[in-house]
Amino acid sequence: MRKNRLLYPARVLIILLASLFSLFPFLIMLKSSFEPYTSIVSLDFHLLPENASLDNYVTVCQEYPILRWFCNSAVVAGVAIALNMVVDVFAAYTLARIEYPGKKATNMMVLCAQIVPVQVIVVPMYQMMVEWGWVDTYRGLILPVAISPFIIFFLKQSFMQIPRALDEAAMIDGCSRIGVLFRVILPNAVPALGTSVVLKFMWVWGDYMWPSLVSKSTEMRTLPVAIATFQRAGGTYPWDLIMPAAVLSSVPIVLLFLFLQKYFIAGLTEGAVKG
């Protein structure tokens, strides 16, 4: 007991240092977003922003269609998450609860799909988008990222931890398979669903590679792609505009995590606690 008491302050200190180390890049970005360009590129480091003002935020919103890009990212992320939750939930429920010929092969396909790097299938996916006329459209941005093998596997593992006795009791009371899913499985898997939403939103919102290939016009760019195009004459990067744009891009992720924080943490620790 005494040893644990002595170790507790050390653990707290390690956690605080690790948290500060993780937050340091974000804090630098936040500080720089309020500074003029000369202060950002200066070699003299200051903990607090010099000549702090909101001019950078005003300028970036005036010079670039930030609202349009923000809406593009919101539409892509929102629709992708909605489709992801529908398709992946039904797929995970089928793999976790329903017996059918070829189930083992399907499970192997889901596992293999997680192993294959996205870069391997980018070229054929892009060729499909060109042939279907989906380049520079919302369909081309959304549908290829609407299904996630990892989320299917993650939800399947969560559903399998729910006792089958609950399914049987519900079916005795007259529930169908769909009724069991919506009345038994999903209410008991809220932490896993919340975790899936947060993870999927982070992936889609921050994705650069696929939107950079599919979005050709300025109007169809998402925020990460648009911010990467910021450049002044002579090839210099306007860090005084990139930083506030990056901060604005981070706000939805931070808000969503704060809103679903307890579900996210519970979903990630659920397997460790029950397993």
From TrEMBL:
GO biological process, one term: transmembrane transport
SUPFAM superfamilies in the cross-refs: MetI-like (SSF161098)
One Gene Ontology CC term in the entry: plasma membrane
Location in or out of the cell: Cell membrane
Record-annotated membrane-spanning stretches: 12-30, 74-96, 108-129, 141-159, 180-205, 241-260
Keyword terms, alphabetized: Cell membrane, Membrane, Transmembrane, Transmembrane helix, Transport
Principal subcellular localisation of the protein: membrane
Gene3D superfamilies registered for this protein in UniProt: MetI-like
Membrane-topology descriptor: Multi-pass membrane protein
Domain ABC transmembrane type-1 stretches: 70-260
Family: Belongs to the binding-protein-dependent transport system permease family.
UniProt-recorded name of the protein: Carbohydrate ABC transporter permease
Organism (species): Subdoligranulum variabile
